[in-house]
Design brief:
Order of helices and strands: EHEHEHEHEHEHEHHHEHEEEEEEHHHEH
Distance between the termini: 62 Å
Bound molecules: nicotinamide-adenine-dinucleotide
Structural class: alpha/beta
Shape: globular
């Protein structure tokens, strides 16, 4: 019998878990009932947030398997660090296959894996465990993206022809936790961490409404990466300090700037282009997402820092540093944009509603692990291109086993 309600368990109780929990005030037919995090304090804090917001009477568990064994838990959201992906999914698959508990589905945060081998392993494990799978790419659920795509395709494309260029950029001043900065742990630098959003959002915009993903076929990728800011001794010292001396950007940097151009062929054989830019060295008010979609007689633009709400604080308002106005906020005074409801604007509410409703209907979500694999394939081809300084025809030989030099800890643009 189909379920009418889901109990959700979240794996990882950090930054992204808090976003999901806050988004849950807009999600129906499911409650957050469990948190597992090896850091018990983090787990307790996340569970307390869920209870405070009344989005579920969340408990903490000693292990993923214990959480699965609880009959109250029907689906899992993976929000643990990238370097734990495969071990987390292996534990889930093992527990389900051994009959420790029953689950309907699993969702996983971006990126699905640190490389193609890991991403494909995630897909293989979820299939083996016979679970529905959702890939958590929030930007394809962002209201401005969804509504913008709908309008442009219905009016512009229907009359003047389909769009030919999608641009997407995600930029901020750098991640909040030391593990993101370590290529070996995270899988790369900003290209892996943030271009995963941009390539997928732009691909989504260019895809005709309702058409399957494979209607656009990647033909080639040209990418560039560099470390523009964080390898400077002053900034490298900040990273070293924040990580208790572990992160060494003088010897082992990751890219803090990257761009890519992906050429696709549409159904009629015409070329359409995705252009992305990402950086960890953007100093503005905070996180800035910009998107564009361009066609023969129309265009669309989104800039999340062009928010409707702005506040002004004079130089006499010298408050504490915070992230209360916008994600990755860089300042507290002057004219500041505020994203009034980040969980809505960035797409988390619509994303989680879609995942829950798909699982309840017994359907595979529209954004799933296969999309996560495709994104990883594009990113790894982008690293190949940036490392060699050439355009890479897609799919390139060796993609299955490719691990970027950044992820091996051997990339150093100044060390040549
Ligand atoms: N969609 C987005 O825009 C977005 C934004 C931020 C992070 N993310 C993704 O979410 C994931 C987590 O990022 P974060 O910013 O929350 O990191 P974080 O470091 O703030 O939190 C991660 C949490 O996972 C816990 N953890 C460590 N090992 C674990 C394990 N084996 N099992 C369960 N939990 C474990 C840590 O103790 C920590 O509390 C990453 O994959 C990241 O790429 C996505």
């Amino acid at each position: 019998m189909k379920k009418k309600y889901l109990g959700i368990g979240i794996i990882g109780g950090g930054f992204i878990a808090r976003f999901h929990i806050r988004s849950w005030v807009g999600v129906r037919d499911a409650d957050i009932l469990g948190i597992f995090d090896p850091d018990e304090k983090r787990a307790a804090e996340a569970a307390a947030l869920a209870r405070k917001l009344k989005v579920g009477n969340a408990k903490t568990y000693k292990s993923i398997s214990d959480m699965i064994a609880d009959p109250a838990i029907d689906a899992l959201w993976i929000g643990a660090p990238n370097y734990t992906r495969v071990e987390v999914m292996e534990e889930i698959a093992h527990a389900v296959l051994k009959g420790k508990g029953e689950l309907v589905g699993v969702t996983c945060e971006k990126p699905l894996g640190r490389n193609v081998k890991e991403a494909r392993r995630m897909l293989e494990l979820v299939k083996k465990a016979n679970l529905l799978d959702g890939y958590l790419e929030n930007q394809v659920f962002a209201p401005a993206v969804v509504r913008g795509k709908e309008i442009v395709w219905a009016r512009g494309a229907a009359i003047a022809g389909p769009p030919f260029l999608a641009r997407a950029a995600e930029e901020h001043s750098g991640p909040h936790m030391p593990w993101f900065w370590e290529g070996t742990l995270q899988g790369g630098g900003v290209l892996n961490d943030m271009m995963c959003h941009s390539v997928e959002e732009a691909r989504f915009m260019l895809t005709p409404p309702g058409a399957p993903r494979n209607v656009l076929k990647p033909v080639s990728i040209t990418a560039y990466m560099n470390c523009l800011k964080w390898q400077e001794p002053h900034y490298a010292a900040i990273l070293a300090k924040n990580s208790g001396g572990k992160t060494d950007y003088l010897k082992r940097p990751a890219e803090d700037f990257a761009r890519s151009l992906v050429e696709y062929k549409d159904k009629s054989g015409k070329k359409v282009i995705v252009e992305t830019t990402t950086s960890w060295c953007y100093i503005g008010a905070g996180l800035r997402l910009t998107m564009e979609l361009l066609g023969p007689e129309y265009s669309l633009q989104i800039n999340t820092l062009d928010s409707g709400l702005k506040v002004f604080f004079s130089r006499n308002v010298m408050g504490k540093e915070g992230e209360d106005l916008v994600e990755k906020q860089n300042a507290e005074i002057g004219l500041m944009p505020v994203v009034a409801n980040e969980e809505t604007e960035y797409g988390y509410i619509a994303e989680n509603r879609h995942m829950v409703q798909s699982f309840l209907a017994g359907k595979r979500p529209e954004e799933n692990f296969s999309d996560g694999v495709n994104v990883t394939e594009l990113l790894m081809a982008a690293y190949m291109s940036a490392e060699k300084g050439i355009t890479i025809p897609f799919p390139p030989p060796g993609l299955d086993t490719f691990v970027p030099a950044v992820a091996q800890g051997t990339w150093n643009p100044r060390g040549k």
